[in-house]
Design goal:
Low-confidence stretches: 162-195
Oligomer: single chain
Number of helices: 13
Strand content: under 5%
Strand order of the largest sheet: 1-2
Shape: globular
Order of helices and strands: HHHHHHHEEHHHHHH
Number of strands: 2
């Protein structure tokens, strides 16, 4: 049985490993020996974090460990942070695959469609109280920038997943598996994958407040449209949330697109994407 002391022990063994100071070619035997030790330490580290949750994933942990050792750049931070980040994403995909097999059977559902199902259900939660579903389709179509026939397909997929929405993990805890799918938008993905929402929001706030004033308006708009569907009204207290965007959302049920935001600031989408990437790099360091 693992305990807190075990976790600290394996953290130390990982952080103090000489593996990244060895030349893979000139010191091949020593490197392979340290690699074997590192894989074992990483496996035991995860078990010390949550033995029940991870003990059946020895092969997958080994696979991720080997890949991380191979691709790690020691000039870009601590190895354990990098490994944890990659493993969380891998674990999310494992759970997603299980969920797809159990819920959709042999029906292939793309990650993008799964993501849109998640957004659809969030939108219905916020918009659906005062609308019949048929009357809601045009608003959903506009809000998600998708044709109505695609919205109807998402409704069908959402119905299929309705009985499997909340899944129970190995710890007996319930959660929405679709909420754990990493998306193509890293900011959104980091937010959704993180268990402690307040901690992530606080870190986003910290990075946002470190920006120059001229950058804040654009980033605020982007963060608002990317995260608002996963936030509650109580989260409006954060300064990175654009209150005007939310006010318009409550009135019309429509959030602006990234293209519209780019036009608002007289910039092209590529320029906005670069700004967002710079922000998420800073955020990753905090996370």
């Amino acid at each position: 049985m693992y305990n807190k002391n075990d976790k600290e022990k394996y953290e130390q063994l990982i952080n103090e490993s000489p593996i990244f100071s060895l030349d893979k070619e000139k010191e091949k035997i020593a490197f392979m020996k340290e690699r074997t030790k590192m894989i074992e330490h990483l496996y035991n580290y995860l078990l010390s974090v949550n033995c029940k949750k991870y003990k059946s994933y020895g092969y997958e942990i080994t696979e991720v460990a080997i890949q991380c050792i191979k691709s790690f750049d020691s000039t870009k931070g601590e190895f354990l942070h990098y490994f944890n980040y990659v493993w969380k994403r891998k674990y999310s995909y494992i759970q997603l695959k299980k969920y797809q097999d159990n819920t959709y059977g042999g029906l292939h559902i793309s990650e993008n469609d799964m993501r849109n199902v998640y957004k659809y259900t969030k939108l219905v939660e916020k918009l659906g109280k005062d609308y019949e579903l048929e009357k809601l389709y045009p608003k959903l179509s506009e809000a998600m920038q998708l044709p109505i026939n695609k919205i109807r397909e998402l409704v069908r997929l959402a119905y299929i997943r309705a009985t499997g929405d909340n899944v129970t993990n190995e710890d007996g805890e319930e959660g929405d598996i679709i909420g754990g799918i990493p998306s193509n938008i890293d900011i959104e993905g980091m937010f959704i994958n993180e268990e402690n929402k307040k901690q992530v929001l606080d870190k986003i706030e910290k990075v946002f407040n470190s920006l120059q004033d001229r950058q804040k308006s654009l980033i605020s708009d982007i963060l608002t449209i990317k995260l608002w569907l996963d936030l509650d009204e109580t989260d409006e207290k954060y300064s990175f949330i654009n209150k005007d965007v939310i006010k318009e959302w409550k009135k019309s049920g429509v959030l602006p697109t990234q293209r519209e935001i780019a036009g608002k600031y007289e910039r092209n989408e590529a320029s906005v994407s670069r700004t967002v990437k710079d922000f998420q790099k800073k955020l990753k360091k905090e996370l």
